[in-house]
Amino acid sequence: MDLFNDLFEEQENLLPKDGTVNYFGQIMSDEEAHHYYSVLLNEIEWKNDQAIIFRKLIETKRKIAWYGDFPFAYTYSKITKTALPWTDTLLELKKLAEKKTGETYNSCLVNLYHDGSEGMAWHSDGEKQLKRHGAIASLSFGAERKFGFKHKETKEVIALNLASGSLLVMKNETQDYWLHRLPPTKKVNSPRINLTFRTIDLEQ
C-alpha cells in the first residue's frame, strides 16, 4: 500500500491494524523548516553512530545525538548513549510536537543522514528503557525521504514520503507488531535531519 502523495487527515490511522501511526504533514512553512534545518545542522553535537554487530564495533556514516530532561542512559544496537542537556531549539520543537500530538516527551534522538545512501534497516523501537506503548514523534527537516512500515507477521508494507517540516507519530502497539525503515535511495543527494521525541520510563 503506497500512500506517497495522498492528502492526510491528522487523526487518520495509516495502519490497518495492530498499532497507530498518524501523519500530520507539514506543520510549518518551508521558510521555518529551512531555518530549523540550518540551526540544527550547526548546533547539534553530532557524532557517528556506533553498533556492535557480530561482536565487532561498527561506526556508521550517519550521525546522531541524544538529548533529554536528565542524562538518561539509552541502549540500542548494544551501545549505550548518555543524554545531553536540551538546546533551546530542541525544547522549542519538543513543545511544538507535544502541542500537535497531545503527548509529552522527555528525550530526543537526533539523526543526520548526509544523502540518500544512508538509511535505516527494518527495525522496531522496542528498547526496554522506553515507555511501553508510548508515543514517538518524528519531525523531519531537509531532504524528503520515503519511510516504510512492515507488519511482523503478515509482511504487509505501507510507505509514505516525509516532507521537510513534517510530523509523524507512532504509538500504542505499533512497535510490537510493525517494523519501520528509511530505505537508501540514489535519488536523494542532500542531507535530512530527523528528530524522534521519545519517553524514557522513569520507573524502571
Automatic annotation (TrEMBL):
<dbReference type="GO" id="GO:0016787">
    <property type="term" value="F:hydrolase activity"/>
</dbReference>
<keyword id="KW-0234">DNA repair</keyword>
<feature type="domain" description="Fe2OG dioxygenase">
    <location>
        <begin position="104"/>
        <end position="201"/>
    </location>
</feature>
<dbReference type="InterPro" id="IPR032854">
    <property type="entry name" value="ALKBH3"/>
</dbReference>
<dbReference type="GO" id="GO:0032451">
    <property type="term" value="F:demethylase activity"/>
</dbReference>
<keyword id="KW-0408">Iron</keyword>
<keyword id="KW-0479">Metal-binding</keyword>
<dbReference type="GO" id="GO:0016705">
    <property type="term" value="F:oxidoreductase activity, acting on paired donors, with incorporation or reduction of molecular oxygen"/>
</dbReference>
<keyword id="KW-0223">Dioxygenase</keyword>
<protein>
    <submittedName>
        <fullName>Alpha-ketoglutarate-dependent dioxygenase AlkB</fullName>
    </submittedName>
</protein>
<dbReference type="InterPro" id="IPR037151">
    <property type="entry name" value="AlkB-like_sf"/>
</dbReference>
<dbReference type="GO" id="GO:0140097">
    <property type="term" value="F:catalytic activity, acting on DNA"/>
</dbReference>
<keyword id="KW-0227">DNA damage</keyword>
<dbReference type="InterPro" id="IPR005123">
    <property type="entry name" value="Oxoglu/Fe-dep_dioxygenase_dom"/>
</dbReference>
<dbReference type="GO" id="GO:0046872">
    <property type="term" value="F:metal ion binding"/>
</dbReference>
<dbReference type="GO" id="GO:0006307">
    <property type="term" value="P:DNA alkylation repair"/>
</dbReference>
<keyword id="KW-0560">Oxidoreductase</keyword>
<dbReference type="Pfam" id="PF13532">
    <property type="entry name" value="2OG-FeII_Oxy_2"/>
</dbReference>
<dbReference type="InterPro" id="IPR027450">
    <property type="entry name" value="AlkB-like"/>
</dbReference>
<dbReference type="GO" id="GO:0051213">
    <property type="term" value="F:dioxygenase activity"/>
</dbReference>
<keyword id="KW-0460">Magnesium</keyword>
